[in-house]
Specification:
By secondary structure, this protein is α+β, with helices and mostly antiparallel strands. The protein has a 4-stranded antiparallel sheet. The two termini are 24 Å apart. 13% of the residues are buried.
């Protein structure tokens, strides 16, 4: 059962994008990707909201996510978040082990 959390970072004057760029340039994002149980860690920017950056953060299971939350990496992230004065909201999803039903798969072009 994989867990995915969509985190929306919002700030002013390009702060959210600057935060994401610093996470990448500093190697922090790569260190998170290298943590045991990390399945994906990727930033995106909505076309209709230039002051928000979305992080799709996926973990193999709750134990892996808990270990990440207990890691020193969280202090680094919190410090950067404060530096850029970002606010957040989160959406949490659990993978459906059954996969995409056939009647939905018909709408997915591969």
């Amino acid at each position: 059962m994989a867990i995915t959390v969509n985190l929306y970072y919002t700030g002013k004057d390009g702060a959210a994008r600057a935060f994401a760029e610093e996470m990448e340039a500093s190697g922090t994002a790569d260190r998170i990707r290298a943590e045991e149980g990390n399945v994906g860690y990727r930033y995106f920017q909505p076309l209709d909201d230039p002051e928000t950056v979305m992080l799709i953060d996926s973990w193999a299971d709750q134990a892996a996510l808990d270990a990440h939350h207990a890691s020193p990496m969280m202090a680094t992230i919190a410090e950067l978040r404060d530096t850029y004065d970002l606010h957040m909201r989160a959406e949490r999803f659990v993978t459906d082990d059954a996969g995409v039903p056939d009647h939905d798969a018909a709408f997915i072009r591969q």
